[in-house]
Structures are given as C-alpha cells and as structure tokens.
Structures
1.
Amino acid sequence: MTFRIKRLALLISLPMLLSTGLTGLALMASNAEAQPAEQNEREVLYWYDPMYPQQRFDTPGPSPFMDMELLPRYADERGDGASMIIDPGVMQNLGMRITSVTREPISQTVEAVGILAFDERDVAIVQARSGGFVEKVYDRAPEDVITRNAPLADLFVPEWAAAQEEYLALRSINEPQLVAAARHRLRLAGVPFDAIAQLERSGKARSTWTITSPIGGVLRSLDVREGMTLSAGASLARINGLENVWLEVAVPEAQVANLNVGQTVEARLPAYPGKSLEGSIEAVLPQANLDSRTVRVRIELPNPDQRLRPGMTADVTLSRDRNEALVVPTEALIRTGRRTLVMLAEGEGKFRPVEVRVGRETEDKTEVLAGLEEGQRVVASGQFLLDSEASLRGLIAQQDQSTQTTEAALHEAEGTIVSLEDDMVGLSHGPFKTLNMPGMTMAFPAADKSLLEGLTEGDRVRVGVSESDEGLLIEQIEQLGGGHDH
C-alpha cells in the first residue's frame, strides 16, 4: 500500500500540484489509504476545494466548483502560524533540494555584440584655401589606404601665382618693408608656410600646387576631378586615421549603471578566432535606443597593424571588479512581479516564505541585499510548490525592515505618454531602477483621475508609482519641460 501511495505522488502532474498544493497531495494519498479513524482523531479547521482554496466551508461534502469532495484542513498542519511542516516523504518524491546562503566574490559580467567603427576624432578634411582649377588628380579612390603626405591633386591658383610674382618683384628692389607686406599677403591668400619658404629659397614662382594628405589612413571621400573649378573653402578630400578604432556596443539599459569610463573590456573578433583584444570604455553615450531599450557604449581599441577594419563585429565582455556579496542560486528565487521570495528551510521539515531584495546577477548566482543572512538555508528546487502551499495556507512572507522601507517609497521613472483613456495612462517609460524593471511601453492606472488633468499624448513626464494588488499604480505625475506638477 505504501508503494502505491508513493507512486501516486510521483504521477501527479505539476499543474495539479500547483493547483492543489502539497497538503492536497498528502490528503489525496490519505484518502487512498482510507483511514477514517485517524482523520476523526485530528481536529479539522475547515474544508476547501484545492482548485479554489480561498473559499472555506464549515462542513464536508461535494465541492460546488468541481466534481470532487471537499478536503479537510487540519489544525496540526498550520505549523507555528508563520511556517509550515512538509512530510519528508513528500519532499523526497518531489526532488526538493536545499542549499545554503553564502558570501562569496562575484563580478557583474555583461556579454554583448559590438561593431567596429572609425575613430571620428582622428579625421582630416582637406579644403581649397583659394579659388582655382584642378590640373591633375592622382590615382586615388575612396576607401584607399594612404600614407601621410600622399599626393591627392595638383591645383592652379591664379591668386597665388600673382602674389608670388609681386613678392619676387619687391624683393628685387631691396625694400624690406614692402617685401614684408608682400609676404604677409601670401599668407592671407592661403599659401602654406612651406611653399613660402620654398619660394624664398628658389626665387621662382610656381604655377601649380600639389595637395597632400595631412595624415595616414583611409581616404573616405575624394571630391575633385580633373578640370574642375574650385571655390575657396571647397572640400577636396576626407581622411580617417586608423591608429585607433571605435567599438560600439549596445548594452541593455538596466546594466548601464554598472559601467564606467576607463573600464577595461575584452573583445573577440570572428575574423581572428582564438585571439582577444583589450580596450577601454571611452564613453557611455547619452541617448538610449527606444526600440531595443539599449544604450550604446563606445570602446577604444588600438590598431597599430591596421588589422581591425570598421564594419567588423566583435563579441564583448564587460566586467566590474570582483567583490564579496551575499548570494543564493538564482533558481531559488520566486519572482511574483511585485516582489521576490525565497522559501527558507528552518529544519525538521519546517519552511516559511521570506521576501528578499536582490541586486546583481552573475552566472547562476544572485546577490541578496536584504532579507537573508549568511548560513541560512533556502529551497533551490521545488520552491514553487512550497509557495503554492504557503498561499493555500494563507502564510504571509516575512519582510525584512529594509525591504519594507524600499517598498513603501514611490518608484520613479521618466517616459512619454502614448495614450490617455479615462484613468489609464499608456506610457513608454525608462527603467524603474528601484524595481529592477526595464523600460517598456505599458498602461498604468492613476490613483486619482485629477492627476491627468492638463496632460496630452506626447508629453514627457516623470511618474511615481506604488505597488498594489492590481499592479503598479500612478501616485504622482510631473510634466517635464515646464509642464504642470500634479
């Protein structure tokens, strides 16, 4: 008979366990054994339907909800009022696993994909200093890699030719003041210093001038053709240096707070398998992507051999310094949407739900900020069934004082109103950091309809919300950019 009961417990499906609770399982097994004498000796508090445990009945009988008999709730199943006692056999059948709360070093690791781009600070623009004509264009094309002082085009600049002839003529009559004035006019016309020095050495005027690249790198654009007429200030070419490249990475906005400028990162490129590169965070850009809810992080990578080419992809690991923290296995957490719980094991088959406040998550561990102490033991497998049983018995999760304080405060975020209907506000919002809730678009009810007076779709607002049984409730709303404060 014992073997048949254990087999019955193992064959109960998970949905049925979640709906009936562990006590329901134990009672069904007891009904299978048909021991009315033992049941008569135990004090019954009330009867209930496991599918509707919130409804209690004073007498036994058929359930008004389901085609089954009501089940008794016994007084000795209450535990101490804050905890519950689970039979060891049931724990074994469910494969329940218990683990300790430990303190150990953890580090926040962010894995993301980035794309290489040009360093936009290492750019040279070549312009025409005076109006002229293009005599020759050298054999160059956009995307060519060129060296410093590489020739780009030969220009004929009439203004420069006339200024040179004037300078040479005045120098020949040995009038120092006039010569100095003529030299100054050459500079005002835009003649480079080295060209003026060459004119003074050679004593010969030049008819054409070779425009060269001021830096080495990639020729991004070449906007001249032979025979073209150029005006002063016309753009001739744009060159991007390649000494460094930028790696731009899209990081989920909920993890941006853990990143700092100057932080070291590791990048791995599919183009060069087996090799990793080290760089540093150069900037966390100020604007988030509304669609993907990510923020771009700019990383600077050295490129001495010019093997890194803009447009390549890279797998990036961003990590914070390791430090000690109180942690539990992530699988031990029960996230209800409003709060986070664990099932605390107190020994001798006693369990009680405890509310916790969590922080960083790394690999398979999560940091616990409040609610637990080192050395306590929590359920890491089967805790959802215990939570269902705790709800059935009406047990309330114990709250740490710091958790209560955090929960009593309003949770704030900024966003844009996308719809207004009665007392509902459709909001495309950023993250509620105190809730560990990422940005998204959703509707919120307002605690008072008067809070919405004067607001229209498209308004940028800051909201303060509280947690209620129906979800998040707007308690405060402030229009940004000179709007009304409600």
2.
Amino acid sequence: MPRRPRPPVPEGVPAARPPRPRRKRRSGKIAQRIVPFDLHPVALREELIELGDLFRAYQQRPEPDLVELSELHSRKAKAFRTWAEVTGETELRLEAERAEQAAAAALLQHQQRTGQSPAGDGQVTSRLLPGLTQWDHARAILAHVAEHTPVPGAEARLLAVLLTLRSALTGTGNLVGQDVRGLPLTDPEELIGRLVESGWLSFPGTVEELLASRPESPTPITIPSLMPGEDGPGPFVFGRKTRPKLSGWAQRVVGDKKLRKKKTGADVRLLALALAVRTSADGRLGADGEGVEVEPLAAWCCVEPEGLEALVEQLTVADWLTDAEFTADGLLRGRLTERVLPVSCPLA
C-alpha cells in the first residue's frame, strides 16, 4: 500500500523541536551522608554537594590551612542547620553543632600557632612568643632549670634561668654586668661564685670583672652541661633565631616594670614565669582554666606551699594576677591580667 504523503506544514508555524535531553543531576556525599536526589531548595543541595567536594579536596592538601578549614566547617554548620529545618531530623542539627565547634577549634588553633588568641570581648592578644612550638620550648627550659640548678634557693634558680637562656644551644654565651644587676639578688657576687665552685658555670677573669663588664665588651660564659656531646646536640634543639626570642621573653617577664617597682623578690619573679606558661588561651590558670597545683608551683618558687599565698598576693598587687583563690583540693585558680597576656604561653 503506497505511503501517504505528509501534509505540508502551514507557513509561519515553526517545526516541532526535538525533545531536550534531561540534565542529569549531580550526586554528592558529605559527612558520610548521601545528599538526597530530591532535596529542596536546590541551592541547599548544591551547597552540600560542593562542601563535600571541598572537604575531600582539603584532605589531599600537603599542608593544613586552618583558616580555610574553619571556614569550611562554618559553611557546613550553616548548611546542616538549614537541612535540619527542612527535614526535621535531630541528627542533622547535632551535626551542625559539631561543625560549629570544629570551626571554632580550628580557628583557635590557627590563632595559637600565630601567637594570637582570644582575650575576651572579641579582642585578640598578640603574644611575644608566636606559637605552640616556642611556648613548649619556654616550658622545657624552665623544667630543665628546675632539675639542674646546682645551688638551692630562689635567687640561684632565677639567675640560672637567665644564664641557661644565654647559653642554651652551644653551652656558651655572653653576659654583661647589667644582666645580673637587673635581677633581685641579695649578693650576686657570692651567688655567681657558688655557681662557679659547683662546676656548673665558668668564665675568664673574676666575678668582679664580670659584674663590671659592659655591652661593648661582654664576658663569655660557659655552662658545660649545655654543650652538645659527641653523639648529638645538647638538651635543647630549637634554632639559633629562637634562643634570643626566648631570652627576651624571660627578661620581659622577670623585668616587668610593676614587678620592679614593687621591689618583688626572686621567688615572686619565679612565680610570674611559672604562671605565664601555665594558662589557657584566655589567661586563666591551667590548661582549661581549672587551676594549677600548688605543691609543684611552690617547689619551683623554692618556698613551702603555705608560703605561696604571700607571693600570689604580691603578684595581685603588681597587677599581674587577678581573681586568685586557693581551693580545698590544692589548686591555685585565677587569671593573668590583660596587661600581661602578651607574655603568656598557653597550654595546648
């Protein structure tokens, strides 16, 4: 049977268009969850898929970027909160809260690594020692001095901090008279003589010549126990540029203007050093602001535990410490004042 010819298309009427192929929607996954194919609004679905891709790309980075990570977690928190509102799922809301906490933690870690941390009321503290590594080095030096000072007493320990920081890497360094005379020492000549007699310290010339030495002609000193051995480095492994920063930090703490004005003794200056390296990011004593144990703190200051209260009072009067209290379970709680937060070295 012959085929009938198609009727002619009327003039002015466009020909029928072929059907458009349906665009395939992207699939995605985030936080071990598959983003639903029919999730609305579409903008939310696209945001969740993109965030999943960005998190997976971040995991492939050779080096972490904590600022970027914080921003990703913040976006995730916002998206999951919207997702929870759309679906009514409690678990999505909890995931949003966890993302908020992760964003804050990443940002705080970045601030700590760069020497900046929240000081309260939206302010940020820039610290003299920038970052976790140098804060740990400061604590390591104080711990080393506590174990290796050969002469008892707070004055000997305070002087040992200064001398150790001057000689930390090679066991050798330079010293001028003003460095020693700037410390609250009852008899610096006698104390230096005892350190020399113990074999812990040596230098050419006499103690009188050391105390008279000036910056243009410093006295070279040697601490044999800090010298590198044949089989490796000495007790400290930080770089040459870090040593003067640590030394400057300790001088800033010990030589604080108000501590000098109040004529505080070596034990009070030791307490200031100890508290500076035992705080939370916002200056509260202890890693989480829970306080610092009294007995080891008193031992570092070379006083009996019952004598620590008088030292704390002096730090409070010197505007170094505030809200100080001793608890029944043997802790000292309180907070460094805002003016000294820059010299604090928060515990991680």
